[in-house]
Specification:
The chain is α+β, with helices and mostly antiparallel strands. Helix content is 63%, strand content 9%. It is built from twelve helices and five strands.
Length: 416
């Protein structure tokens, strides 16, 4: 497993255990994560502090003269402190229970005091404020009988209560500060993960849109080239007695169209293989100024096409609008070759700035069935055109019209 996958898994597990960390419910055996290196270090330190407090408190009792005279009481006090120190390994699972038990044990055995303070700190770190407040009040109330049973000869009773209260409040405040800091770090981590996920989603969406654009480009270009190849190949198939010069010319057109189709396919696949940030410029895209070349290419392939160009300067059309118009005419002529071979296609281009650009492609509906097999189509050509025109904020209409014609009409906005 890679380090990234492992980090993601631990992040998910940490968020899953967040309710158990920040509520009063204890962990279940199935929810607890194994102790990390940091957890082991903290638990060892807590155990050493609790165990180290035993001799400190015991010698303090001896100096105050409050050590029990009976040996069995002394042994019981030391055993209770040792057991309290051992409970530090369980403080993460039952902090509230341990705090209550150790506080009650402190009424009889002073050596449990250090462990009780650490348990109270754990409650402040891992539990909600209402629980912390309730346990803090319980601890403050337990100070009254504790100092009554184990008075401090160097300080008055109420002075001891005041010092104990200040110390306990300081411990709780430190624990709540640690809890607040952990919550802040967790919130920042989750916010960073959400931002990273959102960024990843944006990247995936951008890649998806780019692939759709490339797919449309591949369909527009290759469908046009392959339809020209089919048209010339069909002519050679049904005119085997054509003059050698005509056959040679058709073969030359087929060879040139096949080479250009392979070149277009190579360029599209190259775009797919390139890294998104490679910085390689895209090949020049056709504009409306290239429309006469498209018409001549279709005529050279034997297609009957008439062009009515009512725009004085094709280069004045913005590149984005002209590129869409070129692809619309290209796809329209491809559809004519596919579904109505041999008919006359009329292409009309008109428009002006602010009024928009009108594109009409008309062709008679085929009568009967041609002997030439129709080119296969997936029906995605008009769908792609509709999407292209919609993205350009234009309008599109297509379908049979009066007098047995098929009309493809689009309007594209032409800003001034």
């Amino acid at each position: 497993m890679s380090s990234t996958a492992a980090s993601h898994r631990h992040s998910i597990e940490y968020r899953r255990l967040l309710p158990a960390l920040l509520t009063a419910e204890p962990y279940s055996d199935g929810d607890r994560l194994p102790r990390s290196t940091r957890d082991w270090v903290v638990d060892v330190i807590a155990f050493l502090i609790a165990a180290g407090g035993i001799p400190v408190i015991w010698f303090s009792e001896r100096s105050d003269g409050t050590v029990p005279s009976q040996h069995y009481l002394v042994i019981a006090d030391l055993v209770a402190g040792s057991l309290a120190a051992l409970t530090m390994w369980l403080r993460r699972r039952w902090p509230v229970t341990l705090t209550i038990v150790l506080s009650l044990a402190g009424l009889a055995f002073q050596t449990t005091g250090a462990a009780a303070i650490i348990a109270m700190f754990t409650v402040a770190v891992h539990r909600r404020f209402p629980i912390v407040a309730a346990i803090t009040i319980f601890e403050l109330l337990s100070l009254l009988p504790q100092y009554a049973v184990h008075p401090d000869k160097n300080m008055s009773y109420w002075g001891s209560i005041l010092v104990g209260t200040i110390f306990l409040v300081a411990v709780v405040a430190c624990g709540m500060f640690v809890r607040a800091r952990r919550q802040l770090l967790l919130s920042l981590r989750e916010r960073a993960e959400r931002a990273e996920a959102a960024q990843q989603l944006k990247v995936e969406q951008a890649q998806h849109l780019e692939r759709e654009r490339i797919a449309r480009e591949m369909h527009d270009v290759l469908a046009h080239r392959i339809s020209l190849l089919s048209l010339h190949a069909g002519a050679l198939e049904f005119r085997p007695d054509a003059p050698p010069a005509e056959i040679a010319r058709a073969a030359g057109v087929i060879r040139a169209s096949a080479r250009q189709a392979l070149q277009d396919l190579r360029e599209v696949i190259g775009v797919l293989r390139e890294s998104p940030d490679s910085g390689q410029p895209e090949r020049p895209q056709p504009t409306l100024a290239d429309l006469p070349g498209l018409i001549d290419e279709s005529r050279a392939a034997g297609m009957r096409v008439e062009l009515e160009d009512e725009i004085a300067d094709l280069t004045a059309v913005p590149d984005a609008v002209g590129r869409s118009a070129y692809r619309i005419v290209q796809e329209g002529l491809t559809n004519v070759r596919k579904h109505a071979p041999g008919v006359l296609a009329r292409v009309c281009i008109a428009g002006a700035p602010d009024s928009g650009l009108d594109i009409e492609i008309r062709n008679p509906l085929p009568v009967g069935r041609s002997n030439v097999a129709e080119l296969p189509g997936a029906g995605s050509g008009l769908i792609g055109l509709t999407e292209r025109v919609t993205l350009a904020s234009g309008r599109i209409e297509h379908g049979p019209v009066g007098e047995g014609e098929f009309l493809l009409h689009t309007w594209l906005p032409w800003p001034a």
